[in-house]
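Sample pair:
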Amino acid sequence: MPTDSPAPADTPRTPPAPAEQVPAPAPERAARRDPGPGPTLRDSDAPAPDAPRGYRAVFAVVEFRAVFAAHLLSLLGVVVSELALTVLVYDLTGSPLLSALTFALGLLPYIVGGTLFAGVADRYPARRVLVVCDLLCAACVAVMLVPATPVAGLLALRCLVAAIAPVFTGTRMAALTDILGEGDLYVLGRSLLRIVSQSAMLIGFGAGGVLLTVLSPRGAITVTVVTFLCSAALLRFGTRDRPARATTGDGGGTLLKESLSGARLVLGDRRIRALMLLFWLPAMFVVAPEALAAPYADAIGASPAALGLLLCAMAVGHIGAELFVGSALSPRNRSRIVLPVAAAGLLPLLVYVIRPGLPLALAALALAGAGAAYVIGLDQWFVDAVPQELRGRAMTLLTAGLMTVQGLGMALAGLAAEFFPVHQVVAGSGIIGTVCTLLLVAEVRRTAPGRMSDTEGRDGADRHVTSR
């Protein structure tokens, strides 16, 4: 399954794990308070001098290598299929609207799947959830290959795959805490998956374009079926079988109730809500220059090749900054930069006020992409703040919300560009986004552990938990 921005388990039959795949045990939760906006104490968890460090330590965990390979395969397959499906719909209908809608349907169902089915992530063993999600997506894509499938059916299947994606991604994020622990290995593992997601967008569209020169659109879509099946096999045989995080009730109605109550519990906690919004809010505004890259390139008289550079610049900046922060900074320093970098991350977009030419615009976009590196430290704060029994639902909701606000940000940027010049819309998104982020940073500081009582933090959510 794709995303980050796109796997499931069974009853425990846990075999003894090889020594190399067990990360250093995390300290007990009670002794590891959410580090908040100040420096963390995780430098004390440093590995032995002869042990692998940084990203190498993550790859030393056998299970993570299986998860990483599965993520890479399925993500590349999805990117290729999105491009091929768009071409197929256009070939069948000749409609630019329906062709564009194929891309939009990759984002819109996230909020539905992430809200209504989030309970799956905690209710069932993670490996089973992940494998079943991959198999369901493979089945959906296989039906797309049938020539008799109408365009409406293709779009409906696209929606179904997108609705499954947040459940898969949230389950995988929660499962990483079992595979890598809750400390620095988890943070670096999440970072690697994000880097893969950014890189796959660059590589996948290029590979898809090449495939479409030698294969039909349905032939290219076949690649996705194979990648989903390979991902399912890697997760089934490359990861351990662990029990579900929470077991409550039976029946479909209960599952829906668990999903909705999990969303209420997560959003009802003031600290978790503030951290989740810090993931979402900057992402909503930073997509404006990408959404408006084509009209901006036209406005400054740039070539089609320049348009490709405008679309790639932010991803390149993000990948470079995340690699640097993950490998060069200690956990303590990654925690220290979260709020300053989040607050300043959208400021490079203010360059658009002067309607910059291509070189300056590319530099601004690369810097804006680099600003997203604050999420490495934020990942640690989030996993510390969320109780284990809510972790799958919280991370599913986080993924669904992130994809939804990015889609909303693109739509709002496009709407604003109908009334204002493109460069003013991008600059405006930088200004408004910075103001909103500064307000949110203040809220994150206020909700730091030790700065408010537990009753203030929960907003009543604790009463709901204890009543269960």
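Residues 5-36, 38-46, 460-468 have pLDDT under 50 and may be disordered.
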